[in-house]
Write a structure and sequence with these properties.
alpha/beta; 6-stranded mixed β-sheet; Purple Acid Phosphatase, chain A, domain 2; 2 domains
């Protein structure tokens, strides 16, 4: 269960925060209520993860959603209490605050209100940020070679994590925004479906994907979630999406499009083996769910690579970890002659909260130059 180990390792900090809040409360009843709430915050996320792999009525889904929201709330509660205590300790060392002031009834009430309200505000802002689907526009120039094109308009999206938590109007908004760009090519970066259940009602999602309009069609590379719950290839076929698993497609004499297997797939080819035998007469665009092979790809003739997967951490300060883990966690990078893009995703995994990154679709305008 993802993040369960991290939650277990955080228990000493969680206990510390629980005791600190108990100390700020005057009455024993309130202290006991706060302890019960902390126990709920700790257990709710593992329960939500268990429920996410099972079918159930609407109240089960509501309980699962509540459980997911407790994870960011617990994270920001711990951060707020620990950082506030450090600040108070520093101010006491500097003689700005006295022990009597800190232990005073008025200060303790303010302290308690601050450490409870701030995490709630951060989570609410994260929910609003998640629900705001944005369009990010970029322009790059790559060699034309013998292509018939002078320009190409690409729409890219990844990390939909479609499932029981997906709002009913999300795909309608997504398709409308994509079609409004009048794209030449639509690319999907993986993790389209969420969970490992086999009983989701997928017909609705398939029908909505089929409404996407583009000149050259809709193509996708698989993500790690495409490996959960068995083979999902039929979903892509019914949705009108051409799934590329370590495959190269020649698109209408205009370009070569390559989709890589997920980075943890046992039969994933090296980039050199994948491109072996592909002529260099046309521009080459690569879709790879994980941006883990940037250095190797930059040494090949790939002109443009687009990825997702990272979510840019999704919750602050996890973005500092993804920045260390990936050469490019979010945004744009040119390395060698290759342009790299990493999207933070159209949606997120787990809690519908995003305190870093954006819920986004990329619009990449490619101009083809005559010279290399």
């Amino acid at each position: 269960m993802w993040l369960l180990n991290e939650l277990i390792f955080s228990i000493p900090l969680i206990i510390y925060v629980c005791l600190r809040i108990r100390k700020l409360l005057a009455r024993k009843l309130y202290k006991n209520i706060s302890t019960a709430l902390f126990l709920f915050l700790v257990l709710a996320f593992p329960l939500a993860e268990i429920l996410s792999h099972r079918a159930g009525p609407s109240w089960i889904r509501a309980l699962m959603n509540i459980g997911y929201y407790t994870l960011p709330l617990l994270l920001y509660l711990v951060l707020t209490v620990v950082l506030t205590d450090l600040l108070i300790g520093l101010l006491r060392m500097l003689k700005v605050l006295s022990k009597e002031k800190v232990n005073g009834r008025r200060f303790r009430r303010f302290h308690l209100g601050f450490v409870v309200i701030l995490p709630l505000v951060v989570v609410v802002l994260g929910i609003l940020n998640f629900h705001h689907l944005r369009l990010k526009e970029y322009s790059v120039e790559i060699p034309r070679r013998s292509s018939v094109l002078t320009e190409l308009k690409i729409v890219f999206a990844s990390d939909f994590h479609l499932g029981d938590q997906t709002e009913s109007d999300f795909m309608d908004r997504f398709v409308a925004l994509v079609n409004a760009q009048n794209p030449d090519l639509v690319l999907i970066g993986g993790d389209v479906l969420e969970g490992d259940r086999r009983d989701e009602a997928l017909d609705h999602f398939e029908a909505q994907f089929r409404q996407i309009k583009s000149k050259y069609g809709v193509f996708a590379a698989p993500g790690n979630h495409e490996g959960y719950g068995g083979n999902r290839d039929e979903f892509f076929t019914r949705a009108g999406i051409r799934l590329l698993r370590d495959a190269v497609e020649k698109i209408d004499g205009a370009l070569y499009l390559t989709g890589r297997n997920d980075g943890r797939s046992r039969d994933r080819k090296t980039i050199e083996a994948l491109l072996q035998g592909t002529p260099d007469d046309l521009p080459l665009i690569l879709v790879d769910h994980r941006p883990t092979d940037i250095d190797n790809v930059s040494r090949t003739r790939v002109d443009l690579q687009i990825s997702g997967h990272t979510h840019h951490g999704q919750l602050f300060p996890i973005n500092f970890i993804t920045n260390k883990q990936y050469e490019l966690s979010w945004g744009y990078l040119k390395k060698g002659q290759t342009h790299f893009f990493v999207s933070s995703g159209a949606q997120v995994w787990g809690p519908r909260v995003r305190t870093v990154g954006d819920s986004e679709i990329l619009l990449i305008r490619v101009n083809f130059s005559a010279a290399r």
